[in-house]
Amino acid sequence: MLTAPPPPVRLQPGRPVMVAAAPPATPLALPTSPAHPLRGVAPVAARPISHRPAAASLRSSSLISAPRAAAACPAGVPDEDSPLLAVPVPMDPADDALAKQVADAAPPRPPPERDFAGTPYVPVYVMLPLGVVNVSGEVVDADELVGQLRVLKAAGVDGVMVDCWWGNVEAHRPQEYNWTGYKRLFQMIRELKLKLQVVMSFHECGGNVGDDVSIPLPHWVTEIGRSNPDIYFTDRAGRRNTECLSWGIDKERVLQGRTAVEVYFDFMRSFRVEFDEYFEDGIISEIEIGLGACGELRYPSYPAKHGWKYPGIGEFQCYDRYLQKQLRKAAEARGHTIWARGPDNAGHYNSEPNLTGFFCDGGDYDSYYGRFFLNWYSQVLVDHADRVLMLARLAFEGSNIAVKVSGVHWWYKTASHAAELTAGFYNPCNRDGYAPIVAVLKKHDAALNFTCVELRTMDQHEVYPEAFADPEGLVWQVLNAAWDAGIQVASENALPCYDREGFNKILENAKPRNDPDGRHLLGFTYLRLSNVLFERPNFFEFERFVKRMHGEAVLDLQV
């Protein structure tokens, strides 16, 4: 990992050097096993950046100082740090060598930690493996899974999150649902007295980096797609993305007589009937409604299978004939039929904003046409959420429902926020693009699940300074937009996290310091259950994190 260049060590020549004593500390053992990256993020972006070694050169300035008494300078004589003495003096080679030796030998000082004892209880869930139930309706490695769930329960974890894959359950024929594997899995979870978050996953698994299994859309749907590929999202070059269905067919009867939203509703209603006892007993605590790529409310604008790599801006996904028809109607209603087209100067998947005519500063994104197009493009996303959530509220009446929104944090520090625009979030520097999304969630009493709460902006700048990323700024904007609207907010980590520094960042976002209203997250879901998590140093940090999320005291707090 790249790190920032070390600051110069300033020593006075010919003076004795004092070394600040560092308290003894046991270095934290970090996992050596490869961590699984997040689906939907390219491998180079999905490395666990929180595993960065402490740079000794960055510590040297705090460990080495020249002795100086406060009253050592007579009146009228400038202090040694005065700009009057800012004349370069050659470093004594002996002092330079000693400084380097001390910097290399001294252990890092851990950053001070906030005490979360007595703070509100925030439940912690753990995502189960993507393929925990296979297409044959069997629980994969059931005995091993039970053992892992027992360990999680003993660590205080509140429950688990499970993807219910459309492609597994309604695989062969319309409205023929096979819930067998999920019934067995849910029974195992109930016997261990864990809670369940269930995801209605209407997208395929296996199309993104980090997907370790392949679960396509239902076979009968892909058969329709062979003769009518416009049921899929399409980019400007005509490439189809089979990860999920285009929102253009939400109200089109192209799925053997049903519209897309009717298909989603029938699936959700079947689940609600089949698992009624789990709702009645309170075992199922929340249903997350999949609304797009990776189960998130967004366009599939940055697909790895089409060559996207972080931090590319992505591409608009509105070129199937159904969305193009809607765009033409919107342009005609506005009175400008020439606007019935997508931008022709928006670059490609891996472009930078400043190298495109559409996204550059002062570019067409802020022109009359650009504002029309982006308003239409983002409204399609909001309308899709509105339609599906209305039916989800009918299917799951009286239950908690949630929607996941992805944290597209790269290019956040530019004027256009290009990567957010292609994903459907109309959030340039002069507009709040998340307010309309929050409003539709509030309309249907749905919680917001937001990602990337563990990421630190400084880490992003160290690894990819050219991305102008700001995950902390994005998290602050989205969480406050939701809280100000009065809706509940939950979150999850975007990348694998095993270290204390990453967990501390999650805690700070979960329970903001000095919030006058005492707001905090509804819950947190950890990505993801794996053998790496159960390695001794990793699980020690995770168990410690769970206690602090629950508001319990820990004995080894670094203050």
Relevant terms:
16 helices; two-stranded antiparallel ribbon; disordered N terminus; alpha/beta; eight-stranded parallel β-barrel; 559 residues; 12 strands
Please characterize this protein's 3D structure:
- It is a single chain.
- This protein has 559 residues and is an alpha/beta fold.
- Helix content is 33%, strand content 10%.
- The chain has helices spanning 56-63, 93-105, 142-154, 166-169, 180-191, 219-227, 260-274, 276-280, 321-334, 368-395, 418-423, 435-443, 457-463, 471-485, 500-510, 536-549, and strands at 18-19, 64-65, 124-127, 159-165, 195-201, 232-234, 240-245, 284-289, 401-405, 446-450, 489-492, 524-526.
- The strands form three sheets. The protein has an eight-stranded parallel beta barrel with strand order 3-4-5-8-9-10-11-12, surrounded by four helices. Strands 1-2 form a two-stranded antiparallel ribbon. Strands 6-7 form a two-stranded antiparallel ribbon.
- α15 links the parallel β11 and β12 (524-526).
- The longest helix has 28 residues, at 368-395.
- The protein is globular, with a radius of gyration of 27 Å.
- Residues 1-89 have low confidence and may be disordered.
Q: Spans of 5+ residues with little confidence (pLDDT < 50)?
A: 1-89
| Proportion of residues in extended strands | 5-15%
Helix content percent band = 25-40%
As a whole number of angstroms, the C-alpha radius of gyration is 27 Å
- Strands ordered across the widest β-sheet: 3-4-5-8-9-10-11-12
Total count of helical runs of at least 4 residues: 16
- For the secondary structure, the number of strands is 12
Strand pairing plus helix content: what structural class? alpha/beta
Order of helices and strands: EHEHEHEHHEHEEHHEHHEHHEHHEHEH
- Which outline best applies? globular
Alpha carbon gap, first and last residue: 28 Å
Largest sheet: 8 strands, parallel, barrel
